[in-house]
Write a structure and sequence with these properties.
- The structure is a homodimer.
- Chain A is α/β, with parallel strands linked by helices.
- Chain A has seven helices and eleven strands.
- In chain A, helix 1 (11-22) links the parallel strand 1 and strand 2.
- In chain A, helix 1 crosses helix 6 and helix 4 packs parallel to helix 5 (127-141).
- The radius of gyration of chain A is 16 Å and the shape is globular.
- Chain A starts with a strand and ends with a helix.
- Chain A binds chain B through residues 56-57, 81-83, 85-87, 90-91, 94, 119-120, 127-128, 131-132, 134-135, 138-139, 142, and chain B through 56-57, 81-83, 85-87, 90-91, 94, 119-120, 127-128, 131-132, 134-135, 138-139, 142.
Chain lengths: 214, 214
């Protein structure tokens, strides 16, 4: 199963690409924005393509063609302006869904944000980011793709523990990016996560078990 | 048929409220953001309620309750920041669709923007506005409501002529706000506009005829 990672040069993306590269089960193709980033991946033996989420849908489709699944982990995390948030986190994401459909990729894993599905719990400070993620997620649900939506809490750079909480609704929490990447790997071909979304924070349960208990 | 006008104090909204008030066929309830705006409507004999598109969906639903149709003509037109565009033109609009469904209002007319349905024709200068309108329109199409989406060209303040062009796709053009308001009135109970969107500019054809030819 070849996984197309959008946002491969991002902080979760790099960890995910590394995990996919090490696995026996998966191969990976990294999508990045700059040729220098692609070159750096290639030097570590990772297949990489250059494409732009602000470009045409057909460009993303050509870049993804031949892969079996897409993981979307690009985005601003709310730190860029609302303008880029609209263009990348919403329109870029939806273009990648349309690209998936146009080249027959059925599986799609989205990295969203904790409680993005419930307006009343959006962080006021980065509300525009939640709006963009909310509608990207809703477009995915309606896309016909076999989706899983991971909604992690505040992202940390500390090492992962391999233990998480995963549920339809969690109260505020944080989670190391490494554990988000591991969770993506764990859901990729786990049918019980198909057509579902869940909140994700650090917790007490080993990742495979947390996924089984969803 | 009572029409709930969202954005009633806006430039199209005021003209539309006036036309509805004068018609034999319709009555109107104006939704505005400020009590002073509501008061000003009431002084001209127009029913008005105060509600906020950035507020809770339930607040909008309560304001609309008892009406038979919603017209959404609120929004920034691209002149506010991308932040407000996300919160009002996208999330506010979708909340009003959810509000419609929650109180059993089936008819919904959206004022969108010329070519909002086709990314390749978005105005680069206000691209964030087109993203917001595009996804509000797509959410409306998927909402189950009986929608009509009007996509006017550049809006003018000059007097209307009562003559328009209306088609699935038009090249760039402009249209007086007064003619947009008249066109809204003409589509409200015109079944051939149900579940459709069309571009709208000034043209040679009287509005009722242009609608019939769609």
């Amino acid at each position: 199963m070849k996984v197309f990672v959008i946002g491969a040069h991002g902080q979760i993306g790099q960890k995910l690409v590394h995990l996919l590269q090490q696995s026996d089960r998966y191969t990976v193709r990294a999508m990045v924005r700059r040729e220098s980033q692609a070159e750096s991946f290639r030097q570590s033996g990772v297949e990489a393509v250059v494409a732009d989420l602000e470009g045409r849908m057909e460009e993303i489709a050509a870049a993804a063609n031949g892969c079996d699944a897409i993981v979307f982990t690009a985005g601003s995390g709310g730190h860029t302006g609302a303008d880029k948030t609209l263009l990348v986190d919403l329109d870029g994401a939806v273009k990648s869904m349309e690209a998936a459909k146009s080249v027959g990729i059925q599986r799609y894993v989205m990295v969203s944000a904790l409680q993005a599905h419930r307006r009343e719990n959006w962080n006021e400070r980065i509300k525009h980011y939640y709006v963009a993620k909310h509608y990207a997620d809703r477009m995915l649900v309606q896309s016909g793709l076999t989706y899983t939506i991971l909604r992690p809490g505040r992202l940390l750079n500390e090492p992962g523990t391999g233990r998480i909480s995963a549920a339809e609704n969690l109260s505020r929490g944080s989670v190391p990016r490494e554990d988000v990447a591991r969770t993506i790997l764990a859901v990729l071909d786990e049918e019980r996560t198909f057509h579902r979304g869940f909140d994700l924070t650090s917790g007490d349960t080993p990742i495979p078990e947390a996924i089984k208990n969803l």
